[in-house]
Amino acid sequence: MSKAGPHEITPEELEEFGLSSYESRVYLSLLSSGISTAKEISSASKIPFGRVYDVLSSLEDKGLADKQESRPKKFSAKDPKLAVNNLLNIKKLALEDIEQKAVLVEEKLLRLHTIKPEESLFWSVALGEKAIDQYIEKIGEAEEELNTILNLRVASRLPHKNIIRNLMEKIKVLSSKNVSIRILLSGVSPGSLEEKYLASIMKFFDEFDRKSVKYCLKCTTAFDVIDNEKVIVKVMNPVKPDEFFAWIFVWQKKFAEELRPKFEEMWTNAKELHIELK
Fold it and tell me: Which stretches of the chain are DSSP H helices?
């Protein structure tokens, strides 16, 4: 098939809207040929004649073609504006249907997902800057409780400044689901970060429950405890201590229960967030 120009349409573009290859080719043929018989459509679209009537019937059902009950039968294409609208409606109905089914499927999957590590251990590691997005996704698994240590000095040096925004949006979603959240900030004090960046950080926490946010000038280790059974340890670059290197996800209830008192100790010694910007 020859490559279409910038203003020409290809069958593949219509296939993205849910049409089959044959349906796309027949509809395009009807648009360019006008009123046609099945034999003419088969010849113009290079679709086997034995398949043409099934394809035309499907296009009728989808609101893309009309049929004239004559001998021989003749067919015409629906107006493109109406055709595209009909395709969109089909997609919307399909999406609504799959969304309804998704609720039931999720419930069934959750009932199946009953095995949680007690003494057993599962772990995974993610490296580099791309791991940040995976980290944000991982904390989204919290169902009851999220205790997180966030190093803002490191965050301020990451190349993508929307990381904190994405993180806070995820935390807000968890909060709306009644997940208990405590955020312990490290590396935050007046003058310790670029003022502009610190101002943007403060805006996020102004929208959040201040009792759920504290800060300490130094936190030797950054980690999260999720639902008292999962742990995320954030590893800094030993060569550049202010640079994120990797995170380690550990799913073991025993380890989480042992690490949680450490968070409690740090939380108790931390200060409430009362930093005023000039």
Answer: 11-15, 21-33, 38-45, 49-61, 80-112, 131-139, 152-155, 162-176, 195-206, 253-269
Residue 177 domain-assigned? yes
Residues paired with residue 215 on neighbouring β-strands, in sequence order? 185, 271
The reply to whether the predicted model has a pTM over 0.70 is: no
Q: In total, how many domains does the chain have?
A: 2
Residue 278 is assigned to a structural domain of this protein: no
| C-beta neighbour count of 216 within 10 angstroms | 18
Q: What residue has token string 């580099």?
A: 128
pLDDT in tens, 7-35: 578 888 888 888 999 999 999 999 988 89
Question: Residue 108: what are its φ and ψ, rounded to 5°?
Answer: -65, -40
Q: What amino acid occupies position 242?
A: D
Range of the domain at 208: 122-272
Round to whole Å and give the CA distance between 51 and 253.
60
DSSP 6: T
Closest to 230 (Cα-Cα) out of 262, 257, 252, 259: 252
Angle between helices 131-139 and 162-176 (to 10 degrees): 10
3-state secondary structure of 186: strand
CA distance 198 to 95: 41
Which of 22-36, 51-65, 193-207, 253-267 shows the lowest per-residue confidence on average (mean pLDDT)?
Answer: 193-207
Tens-digit pLDDT profile for residues 78-118? 999 999 999 999 989 888 888 888 888 888 887 776 555 55
Task: Report the run of H or E that residue 123 belongs to, with start and end.
Answer: strand 122-127
Q: Which residue has the tokens 């968070």?
A: 263
Residue 216: give its domain's CATH number.
Answer: 3.30.870.10
pLDDT band at residue 1 under the 50/70/90 scheme: very low
